[in-house]
Design brief:
By secondary structure, the protein is mainly alpha-helical. The protein has a single domain (5-149, 161-174), classed as Four Helix Bundle (Hemerythrin (Met), subunit A) (Up-down Bundle). The protein is 53% helix and 3% strand. It contains six helices and two strands. It has a two-stranded antiparallel ribbon. Strand 1 (125-127) and strand 2 (133-135) form a beta hairpin. The longest helix is centred in the C-terminal third of the chain and has 25 residues, at 136-160. The relative contact order is 0.19.
Length: 175
Amino acid sequence: MAGRSGIEALLHLIEMAFGEPGAQEVESQALLQNLASVPEDAWRALPSAGARSIESIVLHVGTCKVMYADYAFRDGSLGWSDTEVQPWPEGEAPMAETIDWLVTVHNRLVEHVQDLADDTELDRPRRTNWGDEWRTRSIIGAMITHDAYHAGEINHLRSMLGSDDRWQYIKDGFG
């Protein structure tokens, strides 16, 4: 019988990239920790020549979590305009409620991964929302790197908007 060591390793990486409790190793690089220091006035702000707000990034990350989970682990019936996928239009998403929704949809995705029977399922082909089939491990890996990518983007936007630059902590010799 196959074990679950691969599934457990991916679950750990999911939480490290997202920033749930227990994943302190890269706290400053995690999505939720980067969102935690975003002030309300930076939520929809755009830096000079910027095209995406932190609000739009968070909506994007959440909608992708819903769509990837629906197609890979459920019936694949959701569309981009469904309110389960995008509860608010861009420009109208309340910051605290949107972050709470992001945590909820993240936890649903994690539950699907936790429900995998054993590591043999990591090689099972599953549907993607764009019509391809990928191995389960590749879909999970894409969601991990997606969180990390957008955590960095939020960090950069937050810094450009002048609201917080966490690098000062590192420059002062604490990182």
